[in-house]
Amino acid sequence: MKKVIKKQAKLHVKTGDTVKVIAGDDKGKTGKILAVDTQKQRAFVEGINIVTKHVKPTAAKPQGGIEKKEAPVHISNLMLVDPKTGEATRTGRKQGENGKLVRYSKKTGEVING
After folding, report:
1. CA of 34: how far to CAs of 13, 15, 31, 87, 111, in Å?
2. pLDDT tens-digit profile of 25-38?
C-alpha cells in the first residue's frame, strides 16, 4: 500500500504576527497570533474569538467554574498588519539577500520580519 504524504501549505501568517480580523463577529479587531494549526489552517489570536468553557472541579482547579479562552479562527479571515503603516495588507514572497524566501507587504514593499 502506498503511503500518501500531505504537503503542508505555506501560510501568509506566522506565530507572533499582528493580524486584523476581516470577517466574522470580531471584524475589525487586531491581535497577536499565539499559535497556528497548519493542517486545519486555523490560528489562535490573542483576544479574538473568545468562548466560555465550563470546567469541572479537578485537583489542579478545585473551584472549577467558567473559563474564557481563545478559539481558533480560519486563516482566510485574517490579514497581516503592515509594521510600517499599521494597516492591513496582503503579503507576497520574494527572495531575500541570502537566497531564502521572505515575506513582504504588497502596499509598501517593506520586508516583514518573523
Report:
1. 11, 6, 9, 20, 21
2. 999 999 999 999 99
